[in-house]
Design goal:
Elements: H1 2-29, H2 33-51, H3 57-77, H4 88-100, H5 104-128, H6 138-144, H7 147-217, H8 224-252, H9 269-278, E1 282-287, H10 296-316, E2 321-329, E3 332-339, H11 355-365, E4 369-374, E5 380-387
Parallel strand pairs: 1-2
Antiparallel strand pairs: 2-3, 3-5, 4-5
Length: about 400
């Protein structure tokens, strides 16, 4: 709407600046009735022609110039003179002809037509008036001489606009090329990482599952506590293998980001905690909300926070009791995992130090906050809060 009004305003301003000067100066040139009649008819035709200049630039120029010659010849035959400013409309139409980019054939035809009209007008002027004061002379030539400059200015403006448009297209093409190159580089890097993970992590994880299944097959030779540990180890290995396959597929082709199995959610926390208990851990869960009321992205983030916190507790505080609390507080999901002091010495150099960083990134991506640190009794506390209205659920 604003563009439309701007276009109408520009057109109205052009009409005023093109035709009003002749009306204002005419009383100082010739205030006779024939002069005003000739000027009025000419400007009425000129207004119509100027309104059609965008669609028919060559035709508008020829008709406008013909109307000017008719007005000059008729007024001269009646002994009247028109203001020199009546040459403004043809100048505008000639500028428009150069700017609109009419074909060379049409431009040549228009110029030839104007030349023929000029010769006919000169002949009619000589035939209809005897006074040399009303015959076209140096004054008309002086008014017509600068006319070609109007076409040159229009052509130059069109050329400049075309160059700017070409530069913008080249810049857009360059941006698309850079984006494509970056995407291809990222894809190559993802494929490389996926290959490394498959060769190292997936291979080791597969061997772990194979050994665990071998031990399960010989479960009769193991004590009861060992059988439970092996069952938990095999289940964790199979789950990790499936999730790793999903991750490798997404790394190789982000467009194929649909996981092979459903993503874990808060409803599977009991299964996660059972795995922790199966390997000798002690954990208590308190959850006062319905998991289905939580967006999927928030459920996945909450599950991963609890999962990573349990892993850290097993590494750094083996045998310590763990308390997991999942609740809805003031429109936010609150996941808290607190473990007590270690019952025995933790594994030396356990982990690579990226667990908390990964949790913080995942929670922060959903507009949440993560705090983690030791408690006063020698334990450790992880607290994540995320808005329940998070998009992407």
């Amino acid at each position: 709407m604003d563009r439309r009004w701007h276009r109408w305003g520009t057109g109205a301003g052009l009409l005023v600046l093109t035709f009003l000067p002749a009306l204002l100066s005419q009383p100082y040139v010739d205030a006779s009735g024939p002069a005003w009649a000739s000027l009025t008819v000419y400007e009425a035709v000129g207004v119509v022609v100027l309104l059609l200049r965008r669609r028919l630039p060559a035709t508008a120029f020829v008709v406008g110039f013909g109307a000017l010659l008719a007005a000059l010849v008729w007024s001269a035959g009646e002994g009247a003179k028109l203001s020199p400013l009546v040459f403004l409309p043809p100048a505008v139409l000639l500028y428009n002809l150069g700017y609109r980019g009419a074909s060379g054939r049409r431009t040549g035809t228009a110029v030839l037509g104007v030349a023929v009209l000029g010769v006919v007008g000169l002949w009619l002027n000589r035939m209809t008036t005897d006074s040399s004061d009303f015959r076209g002379g140096v004054d008309v030539l002086a008014a017509l001489a600068p006319m070609p400059l109007a076409w040159v200015m229009g052509f130059a403006a069109r050329t400049r606009q075309a160059l700017l448009a070409a530069a913008e297209r080249q810049a857009a093409d360059a941006r698309r090329a850079r984006a494509l190159e970056a995407a291809q580089a990222a894809q190559r890097e993802r494929a490389r990482i996926a290959g490394e993970m498959h060769d190292v992590v997936a291979h080791s994880l597969t061997l772990l599952v194979v050994h665990a299944e071998t031990l399960r097959a010989r479960g009769g030779e193991l004590p009861d506590w060992a059988r439970a540990q092996v069952d938990g180890l095999a289940a964790a290995g199979r789950q990790s293998s499936g999730e790793l396959r999903d991750l490798l597929r997404m790394l190789r082709d982000p467009a194929d980001a649909v996981p092979l199995r459903p993503t874990p959610d808060l409803a599977e926390l009991n299964t996660l905690l059972d795995g922790h208990r199966a390997i000798g851990g002690t954990v208590e869960l308190t959850m006062d909300l319905a998991p289905e009321a939580v967006p999927g992205a928030v459920q996945l983030a909450g599950y991963r926070v609890v999962q990573e916190a349990l892993v850290n507790a097993r590494r750094h505080a083996p045998g310590a009791p763990v308390r997991v609390t999942v609740a809805s507080v003031a429109g936010r999901l609150r996941c808290e995992v607190v473990n007590g002091p270690a019952a025995r010495r933790g594994a030396a150099d356990a982990g690579i130090g990226l667990g908390l960083v990964s949790m913080d990134d995942r929670v922060g991506a959903l507009g949440g906050d993560l705090t983690a640190g030791p408690t006063g009794d020698g334990g450790f506390r992880v607290l994540a809060t995320m808005p329940l209205e998070c998009a992407g659920g």
